[in-house]
Design goal:
The complex is a heterodimer of chains A (261) and B (137). With 261 residues, chain A is mostly beta strands. Chain A is built from three helices and 18 strands. In chain A, strands 1, 2, 3, 8, 13, 16, 17 and 18 form an eight-stranded mixed beta sheet that branches. Chain A has a six-stranded antiparallel beta sheet with strand order 5-4-7-14-9-12, with no helix packed on it. The longest helix of chain A is centred in the last third of the chain and has 12 residues, at 243-254. With 137 residues, chain B is an all-beta fold. Chain B is 0% helix and 50% strand. Chain B has a single domain (3-134), classed as Jelly Rolls (Sandwich), CATH 2.60.120. Classes of the chains: A mainly beta (261), B mainly beta (137).
């Protein structure tokens, strides 16, 4: 059963599951409506790399963005310099994906395509906290390492009250003009208040679009952001043979979910 | 799968009988001042391939256009190995399209390609190549 359209966005009255690896918990949302149905694409223009932004270098040392949107050869956005996507008139004009906790009925599902396609991408959640790890926390990964990044595209869900930081890297000798095309869904969502339904979705017996948020380090900011927005930190993902345990937990959590979502 | 197809254009200086084409593209930020000069080679990101799909050569004089690769752009000296040669026999143009591409793999990220010219008599010549960067198998 298909729950996403050709853009990769969740259809109305279908479900979106946002999984958090470090806690083995997930949020299940029913997409009541897509607020931007029919206009899901943004030709954003150059990546938000402001002129003068200090950059790390794959060759050692540092460089800087020469002109807004240009990523020089062998350079990457460093931790601490992560960028957000500004938009004039947005709730936070410096970060178009940030919304506060009382906008909890809204959820942004974002698919970011960057050009040139070889550019490395990773996310810090919250901004400044690297979430790509290898062997528990043995090695921290990211665009400045040999792995722990994607090229050209990243899909994520922006939770309210939590700021995400984007990083980009160019591991060629070419100084390139960058650009971005964003496909997004501004969903009006609710959390189903049916423990049986939650269990069916989290055991993959009922269709849902799963997005894993690469959270491997559970920063206090994340915990606070989730509990202040939804009242819970998500539903534990149980194996199928733990039904009664799962339902007991989910029914208990239902009482904690704040109204409005 | 990630794929980026880029058109690069190069031009001889008209006075040297051999050299490497400085490359221009709409994607490249080039001011003419270091470090933002036109590149004479292109490195290939690790895990990706450079596929040269199309070559268009034109010029006023006989010109050999040579595609070369190196396994290590950081070596001193860099060892360049010819991989493909096209010959413009005399004044005119040739277009080579819809053939299997010339493929160079990026394994460590130190691999690079360049396009060179060689002429019996120095003159103006131009090359346009379509290079796809892709991570497909």
């Amino acid at each position: 059963m298909v729950v996403v359209d050709s853009l990769g966005l969740v259809l109305e009255n279908e479900h979106l599951t946002v999984y958090i690896p470090v806690t083995n918990k997930a949020f299940v949302f029913r997409v009541k409506s897509r607020y931007n149905k029919g206009f899901e694409r943004i030709n954003y223009g150059p990546l938000p790399l402001p002129s003068g932004l200090p950059l790390g270098s794959y060759l050692g040392g540092t460089s800087a963005v020469p002109v807004t949107g240009v990523l020089p050869a062998y350079s990457y956005v460093m931790i601490g310099g992560e960028v957000s996507f500004p938009m004039s008139g947005a709730y936070d004009e410096k970060d178009m994906w940030y919304i506060p906790k009382d906008w909890r009925e809204r959820l942004f599902h974002v698919i970011l395509d960057v050009y040139p396609r070889w550019l490395r991408i990773d996310l810090t959640i919250p901004k400044g906290v690297v979430q790509r790890r290898f062997q528990r926390d043995k090695i921290t990964l990211g665009i400045e390492k040999n792995f722990g990044f994607s090229r050209g595209r990243i899909e994520t869900v922006h939770f309210p009250e939590i700021r995400y930081g984007y990083r980009f890297g160019n591991d060629t000798n070419l100084n390139v003009y960058t650009s971005a095309i964003i496909t997004y869904g501004e969903y009006v969502v609710e959390i189903p208040r049916d423990a049986e339904m939650i269990f069916s979705i989290l055991t993959r017996r009922y269709p849902s679009h799963w997005v894993t948020i690469p959270i491997t380090s559970y920063d206090e900011t994340i915990r606070r952001g989730l509990t202040e927005t939804y009242g819970i930190e998500g539903f534990t993902v149980y194996p199928i043979n733990k039904r009664s345990e799962a339902l007991a937990e989910y029914n208990k959590l239902m009482k904690d979910i704040v109204s409005g979502v | 799968m990630v794929s980026e197809l880029i058109t690069f254009k190069g031009e001889t200086d008209g006075t040297s009988t051999s050299g490497d084409f400085p490359l221009y593209s709409d994607l490249l930020f080039i001011t003419g001042s270091a470090p933002f000069t036109a590149p004479t080679y292109i490195t290939i990101p690790p895990g990706m391939k450079a596929k040269i799909w199309t070559k268009r050569i034109s010029g006023d004089v006989e010109t050999n256009v040579i595609i070369q690769f190196t396994k290590n752009i950081s070596a001193s000296p860099v060892v360049w190995i010819p991989l493909d040669v096209e010959k413009l026999a005399s004044k005119g143009e040739i277009t080579l399209e819809k053939r299997r591409p010339v493929v160079v793999r990026g394994i460590l990220g130190t691999e690079a390609i360049k396009i060179s010219w060689s002429q019996p008599t120095a003159g103006k010549a131009y090359v346009v190549v379509e290079i796809e960067f892709t991570d497909e198998e």
